Every structure is written in structure tokens, then in C-alpha cells.
ABC transporter ATP-binding protein
Amino acid sequence: MIEVKGAGKQFGSISALNRLDWTIGEGEWWGIIGPNGSGKSTLMHLLSGVERVSSGMINIRGRNVADFSRKQLSRMMAVLQQEGIAPVHYPVREVLEMGRYPYLDWLGRDSKEDVDSLLEGIMDKLELHELAERPLDELSGGQRQRVALGQVMAQEPQILLLDEPTTFLDIRYQQQFMELVANWRRETGITVIAVLHDLNLAALYCDKLLVLRDGREVGMGTPEEMLTADRIRSVYEVEPVVVAHPASGVPQVLLSRQNL
Ligand SMILES: Nc1ncnc2c1ncn2[C@@H]1O[C@H](COP(=O)(O)OP(=O)(O)OP(=O)(O)O)[C@@H](O)[C@H]1O
């Protein structure tokens, strides 16, 4: 469904991404992992059409990403950044409605008949009813990230791009956020691509991982295949201990104190 063929991105003399070949199937949940500066955000910007490839190409459903209009892309794909949405002084309900922007005609009419029940359903799922009239800039970071997820749900995309979405969340909200995405995917079959620094969350939620280092792919496969001590050692230059999660068996990565 998404085909990345020999994709590369240069910024002047910096090669942020090199000759990446990658195929993302419909409904899959991929995690992109790798150290700081390895090209993860660059790849997300190429997928979302914010940046153009310097070489190679990216096709979505057989069509070059560069050939879609902004509006066409945003009907198909939603992007959620680590800081969610800017803390504007608009009530939560209106912020959710902004997710419908790609579907409005020039008179501001939505192509969907029953937007109200769509928004009600989202507020139910994300438990946003009690926040509906509160302005976004008065909410906590965790609450704002929930609203940001609601806004992209209102956008009804088929592809969700998450760029380090849990960075500013405590562990309860990290889990809640990932579970909400997992439920959404189960219900709609949406494709999810998430840049994650937290390898343990990546192992818990992603079907497959793409590992980048210095702008190059250094592995792709299941969390079990990718999160081996050897690979983590060579990619991140740390000495990890990898254990199986006692409940699910997925790999979990522990760090050790040095020189002990
Ligand atoms: N707009 C830009 N102009 C110049 N160089 C850039 C630009 N964007 C990214 N780079 C460079 O490309 C490389 C990859 O950066 P990128 O932000 O994609 O890495 P990342 O894996 O997302 O890093 P992090 O984990 O720190 O967010 C870095 O060397 C970065 O300095």
C-alpha cells in the first residue's frame, strides 16, 4: 500500500536518508526506531509529503506522494506530532471539528452527513465529554494529547503517522494513548507508522520495526527479530539486557549501570 523505493533525502551536504526500500502493508502497525539524528523524522516528513525525496520515490496506493494535493493527502493520512497540537484558546469540541477541515467545500460544508455523531462517538471513546467546553490551552499535556488524537480521528484517515507521540506523557497516559490507537486500528483497519524512542512500547504495540542508523536501514522485521541485544548494542552503542515480557513474551530492553 505504501512503497518506498530507493528513497533518499539530502540537506546540502548532509545525507539524512539513504536509498531506503520499504513496503508497508494495509493495516500494519510499524514502528521506526533508531538513535537521535538517524533520519526518523526526515522519513516521516517524506511520507507525509511535507518534504520531497532527493532520490527514489514514495508511492501510496500506486500514486506518487508528490502527485497528491494537500487536501487529498489529508483525507488519506493524518499526522500527530510529539507535542500534539498548539495550545490554542479554543474549546475542545471546536478543536475536534478542525479535524474535518479536509472534507469542507468552499462554503464550509462537510461532505459527511452526520458529523455530530462522529464527534460524539470520538468524545465517548476518548472520554472527552467533561472537557468538551474547556479551552485547549488550559488542559494538561496528557489531556491535550488525547484531544490531538481525537482531532486526527475526526479526520478519518486510512494512514496514521505518529512522531514520538508519547514523549511528554507519564506511563499511564503512554499506555492509554497506545491502547486508544490500538483500539482504533482494530475497529477501522487503519495503517499506523510510529516513530518511537521507547523500545519497550514499540515491542508491545508494533507488528514490525524499521531500524535506522545514520540515515540507513539496518534492519526490518518483528520486534523479536529486531530487538536483540546484539542489534541494540551496535545501533545505539549501549550494553543492553533483553528479557522476554513475563506476560506477552515480547522483548523488553533493560539498561545496566556501567562499571558495576
Ligand atoms: N531541515 C533540515 N536541514 C538540514 N539538516 C537536517 C534537516 N532536517 C534534518 N536534518 C539532518 O538530518 C539528519 C537526520 O535528522 P532527523 O531529524 O531525521 O533524525 P531523527 O532520527 O528524527 O532524530 P531525533 O531522534 O533526534 O529526533 C540529522 O543529521 C539532521 O541534522
Summary: Residues 171-188 form the longest helix (18 residues). The pocket of adenosine-5'-triphosphate is lined by residues 11, 14, 16, 34, 36-42 (CB under 6 Å). The first strand starts at residue 2 and ends at 11. The mean pLDDT is 94.
